[in-house]
Specification:
It is built from 6 helices and 4 strands; from the N terminus they run ααβαβαββαα. It is α+β, with helices and mostly antiparallel strands and about 240 residues long. Among the domains are: about 40 residues; about 90 residues, 60s Ribosomal Protein L30, Chain: A, CATH 3.30.1330. Helix 3 crosses helix 4. It is flat.
Length: about 240
């Protein structure tokens, strides 16, 4: 009876030592797992260069000035050409959400001449699709200027690229195998400088109306049971070479 009690006590001691060793092993795994979780919880990892180095698109004023001399009957040929070129850039800049603002000097010696110039602009604006609601004409006082200019302006989209050249970590010592912070920055900066219409970076352009003439032609052919494709000449067709 005494032997069995001693044997049982020895087995209990061995079991206690085994449980202690297992607890130490699990504690070590816990410590390693905790380090990994701490690295994962350090924050979201941004791998996309477009998110790390975004291009800022904003609306900025674009304007031109016309010096209208006192007694002028309207726009000169050179001024008329400048106005047409400015309006062309307005349409190319996708400034449909911005009104065209014409600021006319008031109370100056060339006030009547400036109004004559605005009268010359009206048919130019109408020919280029400007409605009355898309153009705003307002007076302004130019104190101290004997011949204040006529100002034309609108808001256009402008793209501003990111600042590059940041290297906060040594690439030779990183162990995470992730994209470095400056990755893709130069590409984003070049894209902001080269894009012709920064509004394209915000979203696709609106669709224009389809060609009703071509749609009507295809519909007529469909009703008649004819092929809707355009007729091609013999020069446009590919022919197989004749073999003897």
């Amino acid at each position: 009876m005494t032997f069995s009690i001693r044997h049982r006590s020895a087995r209990q001691a061995v079991a206690a030592v085994a449980i202690s060793l297992a607890a130490l092993g699990l504690g070590g795994c816990d410590h390693l797992m905790g380090d990994r979780l701490e690295q994962m919880d350090a924050g979201p990892v941004i791998l996309d260069p477009t998110q790390r180095h975004p291009i800022l698109v904003s609306q900025q004023p674009h304007k031109m000035t016309l010096r209208v001399a006192r007694g002028a009957a309207g726009l000169s040929p050179a001024q008329r050409a400048s106005v047409i070129d400015f309006l062309t850039k307005y349409h190319a800049a996708d400034a449909g959400n911005s009104k065209l603002l014409i600021s006319v000097p008031s109370g100056s010696a060339n006030e009547i001449a400036a109004m004559n110039a605005v009268a010359d602009m009206r048919p130019i604006l109408s020919d280029r699709g400007f409605s009355e609601s898309s153009v705003s004409i307002e007076p302004y006082h130019a104190d101290g200027d004997p011949q204040p200019p006529l100002r034309i302006s609108y808001l256009r989209f402008a793209a501003e690229g990111p600042e590059c050249g940041k290297w906060p970590e040594n690439l030779a010592e990183t162990s995470r195998n992730l994209n470095y912070q400056n990755f893709g920055c130069a590409q984003q900066k070049n894209l902001a400088a080269l894009v012709s219409n920064p509004a394209d970076l915000l979203g696709p352009r609106t669709m224009t109306a389809g060609s009703a003439e071509r749609r009507g032609t295809n519909w007529d052919k469909y009703i008649k049971g004819e092929s809707p494709h355009a007729d091609r000449s013999s020069d446009e067709r590919v022919t197989k070479p004749q073999t003897n």
